[in-house]
Amino acid sequence: MVIDFETTTPAGHPAQPIEVAALALRYQEGAWTAVGRSSSLIRPPAFAPVTPASTAQTGLTPEQLRQAPTPAEALGALDRRFTADNRYLLVAQHAATEANIIHNQREHCPALARVDFLDTIPFAKHLVPGLPNYKLDTLLAHFSIQHPADRHRAYADVDVTAQVFLRLVNTADENAQPSDLAALVTIAGRTAKCNIQCNIPVQSGLFEI
After folding, report:
1. CB-CB neighbours of 13 under 10 Å
2. pLDDT tens figures, 128-149
3. How far is CA 1 from the centre of its chain?
4. 199 falls in which pLDDT band (50, 70, 90)?
5. How far is 199 from 189, CA to CA, in rounded Å?
6. Is the pTM of this model over 0.85?
7. Ordered alpha helix ranges (H), the chain
8. By percentage, how much of the chain surpasses pLDDT 90?
9. Domains of the chain by range and CATH?
10. In a 10 Å sphere around its CB, with 0-12 CB exposed, 13-18 middle and 19+ buried, how is residue 163 labelled?
11. Do the beta carbons of residue 145 and residue 166 sit within 8 Å?
């Protein structure tokens, strides 16, 4: 599942989510298929008002978020999409950012907080060495992926991140490296913090590899 957050960052506090989007991908019958999509605005807490800088980047205003779902509502709804009989990996551009947001919100999304990540940045560095940097816009240009008009909205960024991921997978297939999922995880995997240090109750067998 490809995931992206937009945030506001109050002084003295970690980044607070103001929007989340997720796109579920499944490999079946020799092709990657989108099998689910989710997006939601998120009302930030009172200590984390949307700043002019956040509005300038995302276009989201305090008025738009005033009636949005709370983090518990928005992330709880996303969390319920994860079921005990399936295995998951989260894909993100600069996965540490999304991982920290999820970890800080883990009381609202305990299943999501247990899912490990694949980070497109080390994946791209391995497959496409020599780029000036590995920011999302640079990867979009490299792969000739159209720059979305609403860049820095979660639903747009998750779509183009998914396109980058699939281009990287195709490049890996063409070069026969990495050769399988285990090799990919070695290169670009990031362990969820809750799989290292949390004691959140979780259903037996959930997300076992």
Report:
1. 12
2. 999 999 999 999 999 999 999 9
3. 8
4. low
5. 22
6. yes
7. 52-58, 62-65, 71-79, 95-104, 120-127, 136-142, 154-175, 181-188
8. 83
9. 2-195 (3.30.420.10)
10. middle
11. no
